[in-house]
Amino acid sequence: MKSKLSALKFVRNNKKQVWVMIIALSLTFMAMYIINFLFLTTRESFKIICIEQPKKVAYVDLCMDTLEVDRALCQSDEELNNKMAEARADVINRLKGHEGISDVIYTQCLFARYTGVVGGLGYDFPLMDTDQIPAYLEHMDAKLIEGRMPEKSGEILVDKRVLKNNNMVIGGYFNESAYGQVFKVVGVIESDYLVCVGTPQGYTNSGWYMVILCDEKNSNMTDVLNDIGIYPTEYDTIFDAADWGNMYKEVVTEELDGALLAILIVVMIFLTISILVAYVSFMRNRVNEYCLYTSIGFGRKDIYGMMLREIGIIFGSSIFIGAVISIVIMLFMGHFVLDNLGLVYQYFYPEHLLRIIASFMVIVGFLQIPIIVTINNIKTIDLIEE
Q1: Where is 39: in which H helix or E strand?
Q2: Is-contact 268 366, C-beta < 8 A?
Q3: What is the DSSP string of 173-194?
């Protein structure tokens, strides 16, 4: 019984060529996964703002028509404002009586910035009276870990990740490029929702909203408002779980996945061409070897199996080495870079790992073309010199 052709023999006898290919494939695997890791760090970070935070708090500003206030019936701006305030107070009282709504506060808000590896997002947070802040922190599962609570106007508590992300410090000014030296950071919050909150300072703000403290089941404000007989239109402003969820899907997830797919396709095209050229060169240098195998009794099927095992060793080693390198780089970047930027990340993305492995398998598939052509052209030893 003849023994199986050894794939390791070629690896041992062609260490330089094999290792060049393994290193190239390993570095390609590493680069592709690290790019995924960085892009998806943005997705994981923005997920808090778009998906998690809106489960706890929503922002609503209703127009005159929705509040059923007729400007034509008002004799002055003061009367108009009073009627708007009365109508808004009625809506707030009805909202407070709705299941899943713990409180509603009509107040000024500020705009917080949060920058990912790719792009950035902004979101509003409330400016409240000092006696309202503890209840808000409790609702948002947030706690003060450094500094103090706001005691006077224009003082802000900032989530620790937002603080790092914006390179702010206690005693410094919040979002100084937008608001100037108006709001001072006095404390740091730890939370799962990138919580910021503060006290108003005059009328410097990003708008007035009904800040609605809700639970996840009642986080779609259009449905909640419909339940109490209010029917929002396109002229109303609503930032809730539905609005943020749609934005996350359409802008964050789909655009990032599209960019990653485009990068993957471009890399795979160049990699496939390079590997095909290199492997065809390997096979040309081994024509006599293949002819010798057929002359001593091995069939084309045996040679094909050997060649597949060789490819398996090369690609398998490349994926393993590339994974090890990726883990080391991700651990380094996570601890020394991403943590200091206040970003949220994870190391293991199975769907994208499988996508990269599948791409490598596509290359293996393309390699079958020159392999089959070479096998079909194998001659026996007596024809080697021809």
Answers
A1: helix 15-47
A2: no
A3: BTTHHHH-TT-EEEEEEE-SS-
Q: Indicate left, alpha or beta for 15 from its phi (over 0: left) and psi (-120 to 50: alpha).
A: alpha
CA distance 90 to 103: 14
* Beta bridge pairs of residue 157: 187, 197
Residue-by-residue DSSP string for 265-334 = HHHHHHHHHHHHHHHHHHHHTTHHHHHHHHHTT--HHHHHHHHHHHHHHHHHHHHHHHHHHHHHHHHHHI
Distance CA 310, CA 312 (A): 5
The Cα–Cα gap between 355 and 358 comes to 5
Q: Which residues contact 142 (CB under 8 A, 6 or more apart)?
A: 159, 189, 190, 191, 193, 195
Sort 78 into a burial class: Cβ within 10 Å, 0-12 / 13-18 / 19+.
exposed
Q: pTM here?
A: 0.84
In this prediction, residues 136-160 reach a mean pLDDT of 97
Query: Where do the structural domains in the chain lie, given as residue ranges?
Result: 8-47+252-383, 52-249
Mean pLDDT, the chain, rounded, equals: 90
> 317-334 burial, b for 16+ CB within 10 Å, e for fewer?
bbbebbbebbeeebeebb
pLDDT digits (tens, 9 = 90+) for 273-312: 888 888 888 777 777 778 888 877 788 888 888 888 888 8
* Maximum alpha-carbon separation in the chain: 110
